[in-house]
């Protein structure tokens, strides 16, 4: 049987009251023993070091420090921190009071840490602004100042409610010079009591506006009244006057230009005057010309200078005083690429033939439609002018003026002729052969002559090519004087057959080699004279020996008569002397061998085809070598002690 403890109501009440008293005693004991907590120095409370002004003293806790002094039996404790600036205004190092409170079930056993005093800053609040308006232009003043252009400062944004802050603004261009849409920098300041220190004025802004040029007035100019034609429309300025209205400190210069409507010569020509500015600040100004003056000036012709022309000092008489201008004078100061030329005219003092005549050089201008130039003055070109008489051939002399001295023209021989004139002084003659003659080795050429005073004949010589074929060739001979005026004569030269067909048979007989029956008629000549009755293929000299130059006129087939060149023999009955030259023709050297001469000293002379001695020397012995390397091609006669031999130089 189970037993229960029964308590009376009074006993229960007594027990409850006793428990309550006991709890009160415990609580009272605990309260009397609460611990003061502290914040760890190793883990202190931290606050945000700065804030932007907001009109309050509140500060922000960034970290709450660790508590020191908590009993492990009563650890359910938390800490709360609150921070307040001493004042709400801007400051660099402002005290901040941090206060703590405890929470948690065991907080009754503890006392919160004492207040901390930390330090933090309150920085000014940056304001912004909208609605700033400036005028779009100003006239150049030399200054960047633009504050007077501000028509509306604008409205601030960001001011704390209840505070009265207002903006002020100043404006400046980046530079003072004229331009469109130039940057204008607007800067702001604030005003409105002590609260103004808690704010930063809005940042500067950049607007744009124009600076237009400052107008100044052009002074009166004076132009030069005359100028010499120079191909330009420029009119020179004498005085420009003084420029007024320039901002102090600016360097602005004034220049005026004047111009004609065209560059040509004329009097009282209208002139247009233009003015402009220059200098470092000149673009900031406009020059205004209010002058109504009408300008005129004169342009006078330019007198040409020149590089002198060339006049031929001699001419043939033509009945006029005109001299021959070889080269026209050249103008040296023509301007503007004008196509102006000088036409030169030269003239003798009289038209008569003679020496030491005065020649005057004059000028005329061509291609100058606007008469912008003056011709140079005439001047005496020379006092040594000459007018000569033209050359006139004496047609009664020889064959219409030409007498051919050589009766037989043979290969390797020389043509000799004489021209007769009745008037004039020739200085050269020119030979012009036909194509057939050129093919045979004849050469065209000009030979200069010096006709002695009083002489009226001109000697004409030229070599017949060594290998020239026999036949007739056309030749034109021109006789010219020092002014290159020529008279002409046409002739035919006939080249005879080579004397290779003639042979000596006996001491007194010469014969033609007619073994091929080339010839059918014969007429012998001795020393260029026909021998009467000598019409056979051979000729026997009745003197009993051959002595002289023998030639033969033959008829070759059906052709016309033709000469065979002479062959010369010396009477061997009276002398045994002879001269042999080899090789013949000669290339470089010729050896002269004597036969029948003594060993005494010999006189040797070499003549060219013109009869001029080109070598003259003496030697001993029977042989002599002549160096002909530098001698021109042609036929040469070698004479030793009066005996002559012929050789040809190739």
What does this structure look like?
Residues 1-32 have low confidence and may be disordered. The protein is mainly β. Helix content is 4%, strand content 50%.
Could you give the order of strands across the largest sheet? 4-11-9-8-5
Strand content: over 45%
Task: Label the structural class.
Answer: mainly beta
SS field, number of helical segments: 2
| Percent helix | under 10%
Question: How far is the first residue's CA from the last residue's CA?
Answer: 187 Å
Number of strands: 62
Rg calc:
69 Å
Assembly level? single chain
- Spatial shape: elongated
Largest sheet: 5 strands, mixed
Overall pLDDT, averaged? 87
- Ranges where pLDDT stays below 50 over 5 or more residues in a row are 1-32
Name the descriptors.
650 residues; mainly beta; 5-stranded mixed sheet; 2 helices; 4% helix; disordered N terminus
What is this structure's SSE topology?
Layout: H1 9-31, E1 35-36, E2 38-39, E3 46-47, E4 50-52, E5 58-59, E6 61-63, E7 67-68, E8 78-85, E9 91-103, E10 110-111, E11 116-123, E12 125-126, E13 128-130, E14 133-134, E15 137-139, E16 150-152, E17 155-157, E18 166-173, E19 179-191, E20 199-200, E21 205-212, E22 214-217, E23 222-223, E24 226-228, E25 234-235, E26 237-239, E27 253-260, E28 266-278, E29 285-288, E30 295-300, E31 302-303, E32 306-307, E33 310-312, E34 314-316, E35 324-327, E36 330-331, E37 341-348, E38 354-366, E39 373-374, E40 379-388, E41 392-393, E42 402-404, E43 414-423, E44 428-433, H2 435-439, E45 445-448, E46 457-463, E47 471-480, E48 486-495, E49 502-506, E50 509-512, E51 519-526, E52 529-530, E53 538-540, E54 548-556, E55 561-569, E56 578-582, E57 589-595, E58 602-607, E59 613-619, E60 623-627, E61 634-640, E62 643-649
